[in-house]
Amino acid sequence: MTLTSFGPANRIARTAETHPLTWRLRDDGEPVWFDEYQAKNGYAAARKAFADLSQDDIVQTVKDAGLKGRGGAGFPTGVKWGLMPKDESMNIRYLLCNADEMEPNTWKDRMLMEQLPHLLIEGMLISARALKTYRGYIFLRGEYTTAAKHLRRAVEEAKAAGLLGKNILGSGFDFELFVHTGAGRYICGEETALINSLEGRRANPRSKPPFPAAVGVWGKPTCVNNVETLCNVPAIIGDGVEWYKSLAREGSEDHGTKLMGFSGKVKNPGLWELPFGVTARELFEDYAGGMRDGFKLKCWQPGGAGTGFLLPEHLDAQMYAGGIAKVGTRMGTGLAMAVDDSINMVSLLRNMEQFFARESCGFCTPCRDGLPWSVKLLMALENGQGQQGDIETLLGLVGFLGPGKTFCAHAPGAVEPLGSAIKYFRPEFEAGIAPTSAAVPPLARPIVVGA
């Protein structure tokens, strides 16, 4: 997968000053291996971090830059790092890279790992130095076989150059890094489920508190960050806080750049590094090229299957967390999907909820039973066999599975698109109610889970 450009946006060249994540990419899409990466100023930030900055300086720099998690939650990275214990006696601690990229319609981390594996390694090396972690793991989605191969080669190259292992850069600091492939569960994107899976346990989320910073991998302090988040660290350390903040568009409360994309029946589906604050319309029209001939934009999701649907009139929203929140949903991963006018929303939502129901860990009742219930109701509506009250039951499930009602964020993310689809396209759901059906009280229709 390569980055593409379309229309006026193609006139903007990728440079180190404007595209900290992607300026090193090769035009042919091949990986940037160690020698080329180092020739392109690679590991310069790591050398600066080891030679000129204290561990606390690195943490404070990342905090001052306002870097936020790029996996979808958007928690401030420097604040998260600051939660790691200061007690020097806690000498066993871990850094985990969450590379279990299983959000439907999201492939940004894959591109970074396949084409710029050393950028991730450098980001992890600097982060490990700041957090005093002696061992790191890249928890990688098992289906990403090319990324696994490229990361393992890059790890060996970094070891051979003395940038991983013992006494890195003569500092006395040791850091080992391992690539660990998962068994393929969406729930592993939740950091504590990822930790359980890494330890060889069932991938259930853990109760918090305690948080991983206090009790993580094998009971030791642990920091979990997303791939794209860690890949921002070298540029922040190398070029400074003020430069990083200046990258975003005016009006954006988030700093730096973000990998954004558009898929669906657009003319130029792809992935681009863009400043926070760019409008969704620019992303859709100037980069993705608008809809293909013969198709009309019906609605769109801003950042993965777990974000709510928006209408074409919402395209003027700025792409940052607060900008998308103003129009009623979350930015998520920042990779948008265009839904064309040939798509039936009931069928689309049935497909989505089937995925989320299958990927539930089954730990808590609302998620375990509520998501299959929504699937059965949507299947009935899809086949024209719905009953009066089914839509109200679905809306009731949206409320019962919302934020704060379940053990983790899986179910709230699953029902957010369902609630928004009913809000904007209720007639399509009503069309699935059988003409002779009797009224059924909301949430009273029976269900046999697994039937």
From TrEMBL:
Its EC number is 7.1.1.-. Its cofactor is FMN; [4Fe-4S] cluster. It catalyses: a quinone + NADH + 5 H(+)(in) = a quinol + NAD(+) + 4 H(+)(out). It comes from the Bacteria. Pfam families: Complex1_51K, NADH_4Fe-4S. The keyword Lipoprotein does not apply. Residues 346-391 form the NADH-ubiquinone oxidoreductase 51kDa subunit iron-sulphur binding domain. GO terms for molecular function: 4 iron, 4 sulfur cluster binding; FMN binding; metal ion binding; NAD binding; NADH dehydrogenase (ubiquinone) activity; quinone binding. Keywords: 4Fe-4S, Flavoprotein, FMN, Iron, Iron-sulfur, Metal-binding, NAD, Quinone, Translocase. Belongs to the complex I 51 kDa subunit family. Composed of 13 different subunits. Subunits NuoCD, E, F, and G constitute the peripheral sector of the complex. NDH-1 shuttles electrons from NADH, via FMN and iron-sulfur (Fe-S) centers, to quinones in the respiratory chain. PANTHER family: NADH-QUINONE OXIDOREDUCTASE SUBUNIT F. This is NADH-quinone oxidoreductase subunit F.
